[in-house]
Amino acid sequence: ATTLGAAAAQSGRNFGTAVAAQKLGDSTYVNILNTEFNSVTAENEMKWDATEPNRGQFNYTSGDRILNHALNNGKQVRGHALLWHQQQPRWAQGLSGSDLRQAAINHVTQVATHYRGKIHSWDVVNEAFADGGSGGRRDSNLQRTGNDWIEAAFRAARAADPNAKLCYNDYNTDGINAKSTGIYNMVRDFKARGVPIDCVGIQSHLSNNAPSDYQANLQRFADLGVDVQITELDISGSNQANAFGAVTRACMAVARCTGITVWGIRDTDSWRTGENPLLFTGSGAKKPAYNQVLDALNAG
Ligand code: G3I
């Protein structure tokens, strides 16, 4: 196959990108999006600050724009993200305790209900684990409502949209380390207790290389009985092309690694300003990393 999406589809996988609503009028951007990708994630437009700017008042204008562009062009949609300690609306930042918990769960229910039946996978909870060696939860206003906030969010999401796959998503979880092991233990506990969880997102914001145990880490999550998805891939540095190839081969080698999403289309679309961590140049040309990814997808 000659495009990323078609090549991934040969093995039943998807290959997606983050999309920004304000770029849907840029013809170079839209041409690459429509040609190359079969999955879309809203880069910012489905987050809490965007979708519930005032408590109980929901705004789906930009999120719907991305969703409809994707669905009208035959692409799946990853929902990102129902609850996160960042990009909360100001009103939620000022809440705590049972009031915040109630607002958070209501947010999950309302947004997942709005998009019911249209989202392939939801990042229900994003980045709730601490960096460093503790393997524990990150301190946040949500965490301070009680350790069970994550499972409460997953249960609410399942009730609102029973057919969406429900994911936990995080960064610095690319290899086997204290943080990824903390998440691994949570997922194992959720599976043992029947808390609904279907997938783990490994963001994969990388520099130069994937860790040598990247594939083993994907595999250990898959062995818990969840899908793994590479959700926000971007790679800086001089070994970029080889590293993109290695990440793609690792996913292809894990049966339950069901898809890869890159975090933007052209280098100029990236949040990593000046690092050029994506598959297309600012003018929309394919980079060496693109060819490595395509070859790895086609190798099956
Ligand atoms: O929308 C406002 C605009 O009105 C204003 O004029 C402009 C001026 O700064 O800011 C705009 O908001 C920015 C928004 O992106 C949309 O462009 C925010 O300042 C900026 O902070 C925000 O950054 C996003 C970041 O998440 C926020 O934490 C990035 O685009 C987005 O790529 C990034 O994505 C995250 C994932 O969601 C989770 N994992 C990590 C990843 C990278 O940080």
UniProtKB/TrEMBL annotation:
Molecular function GO labels: endo-1,4-beta-xylanase activity; polysaccharide binding
Residue span relative to the full protein: 35 to 334 of 449
GH10 domain span: 1-296
Organism: Lentzea guizhouensis
Domain of life according to the entry: Bacteria
EC number in record: 3.2.1.8
UniProt protein name: Beta-xylanase
Family statement: Belongs to the glycosyl hydrolase 10 (cellulase F) family.
Keyword list, A-Z: Carbohydrate metabolism, Glycosidase, Hydrolase, Polysaccharide degradation, Signal, Xylan degradation
Reactions this protein catalyses: Endohydrolysis of (1->4)-beta-D-xylosidic linkages in xylans
